[in-house]
């Protein structure tokens, strides 16, 4: 039996996830305070002395979640988190508050598909956008003269990976800021601020909350001036989360380590299963030892996430297979406790083959997920023969 006196000075990932952002225990108080539902606060005297002034500026429920998220994204150095109404609000806060007319921003051309219309908006505002593929030499070359570099690693949906530290060092030599979309990895799987990024950005809608019932986003910075810039944008635009959404996301952090560990194990099982199907090609999952992204992912990630992708022969086969699944739900988004999959090309914003499928692996029993995919495959093949 281990001696408690020899326990590490810093708690483990699971312990921190369970306790992050919670108040010190107090007699007769709940371990996690409920959501504060208010638009205004009693405000006598000088507002400069008040902790909270108005519901658009701050809320104790946000504060608790922001404290928790910052502790997970940056456990060893002080950082501040800012929560938003959605992941897209968090992305927009960074890009639209730091890219000026005449400025230059580097974006992935294989990342989240709403980056495409956002890049069009940045161009309309007078900025230069350099869109380059993740993990290629072009990504590093495009940094010269840039003001902001946006990285998404692993990229969604193709799951390519880039070297955050190398690109951050290159960008900082050019005087550029670096933002990393950390949605897929989660703060337990990857900590961009430790690797040199200035912003760690994520959609809390996905694995952070994990139950498919919350829209949320966040930005974490170690630089107080950068935090102030995104908080000012949040106030001016009004992209604030509801206190109930913030409370639900904070509640979900207690199981984040359990969910992600199970999801990653399941994802690896399914990736290995799918590689054995003759009609499947290009199975991608960074956790596969021979995946093109594995070596780099293993160096900078603590876990490989819950998302995998694969390509079926054509659109019709993919649609038949997805329609035949019983455990796996056909839906967009990822990171939830329930497994989902979709033919990604149906949205029209990703440069992927018609039969490309993005799958988010949940916490079900792996054997049941394998069986479900096998019966769906059989049904799709039978329908193809009959058709």
UniProtKB/TrEMBL annotation:
GO terms for molecular function: cystathionine gamma-lyase activity; pyridoxal phosphate binding. Its EC number is 4.4.1.1. GO terms for biological process: cysteine biosynthetic process via cystathionine; transsulfuration. Keywords: Lyase, Pyridoxal phosphate. The keyword Phosphoprotein does not apply. InterPro entries: Cys/Met-Metab_PyrdxlP-dep_enz, PyrdxlP-dep_Trfase, PyrdxlP-dep_Trfase_major, PyrdxlP-dep_Trfase_small. Its cofactor is pyridoxal 5'-phosphate. The modification N6-(pyridoxal phosphate)lysine is found at residue 206. Residues 1-37 are annotated as: Disordered. Residues 24-34 have a biased composition (Pro residues). GO terms for cellular component: cytoplasm. Belongs to the trans-sulfuration enzymes family. This is Cystathionine gamma-lyase. It comes from Streptomyces alkaliterrae. The lineage of its organism: Bacteria, Bacillati, Actinomycetota, Actinomycetes, Kitasatosporales.
């Amino acid at each position: 039996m281990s001696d408690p006196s020899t326990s590490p000075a810093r708690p483990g990932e699971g312990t921190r996830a369970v306790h992050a952002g919670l108040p010190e225990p107090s007699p007769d108080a709940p371990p996690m305070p409920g959501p504060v539902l208010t638009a205004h606060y009693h405000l006598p005297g000088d507002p400069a002395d008040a902790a909270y002034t108005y519901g658009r500026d701050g809320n104790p429920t946000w504060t608790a979640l922001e404290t928790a998220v910052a502790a997970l994204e940056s456990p060893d150095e002080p950082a501040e988190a800012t929560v938003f109404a959605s992941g897209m609000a968090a992305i927009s806060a960074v890009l639209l508050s730091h890219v000026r007319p005449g400025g230059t921003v580097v974006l992935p051309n294989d990342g989240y598909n709403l980056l495409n219309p956002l890049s069009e908006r940045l161009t309309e505002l007078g900025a230069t956008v350099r869109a380059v593929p993740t993990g290629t030499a072009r990504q590093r070359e495009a940094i010269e003269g840039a003001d902001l570099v946006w990285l998404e690693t692993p990229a969604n949906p193709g799951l390519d990976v880039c070297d955050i530290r190398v690109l951050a060092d290159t960008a900082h030599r050019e005087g550029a800021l670096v933002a990393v979309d950390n949605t897929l990895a989660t703060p337990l799987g990857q900590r961009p601020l430790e690797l040199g990024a200035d912003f760690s950005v994520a959609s809390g809608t996905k694995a952070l909350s994990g139950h498919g019932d919350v829209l949320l986003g966040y930005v974490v910075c170690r630089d107080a001036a950068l935090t102030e810039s995104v908080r000012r944008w949040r106030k001016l635009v009004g992209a604030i989360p509801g206190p109930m959404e913030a409370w639900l996301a904070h509640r979900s952090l207690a199981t984040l380590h359990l969910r992600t560990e199970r999801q990653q194990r399941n994802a690896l099982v399914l990736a290995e299963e799918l590689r054995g199907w003759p009609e499947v090609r290009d199975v991608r999952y960074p956790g596969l030892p021979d995946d093109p992204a594995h070596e780099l992912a293993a160096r900078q990630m603590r876990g490989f996430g819950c998302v995998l992708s694969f390509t079926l022969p054509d659109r019709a086969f993919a649609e038949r297979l997805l329609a035949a699944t019983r455990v796996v739900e056909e839906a967009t988004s990822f990171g939830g406790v329930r497994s989902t999959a979709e033919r990604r090309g149906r949205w029209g914003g990703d440069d992927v083959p018609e039969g490309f499928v993005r799958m988010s692996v949940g916490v079900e029993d792996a054997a049941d997920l394998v069986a479900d995919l096998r019966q769906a495959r059989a049904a799709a093949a039978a329908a193809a023969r009959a058709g």
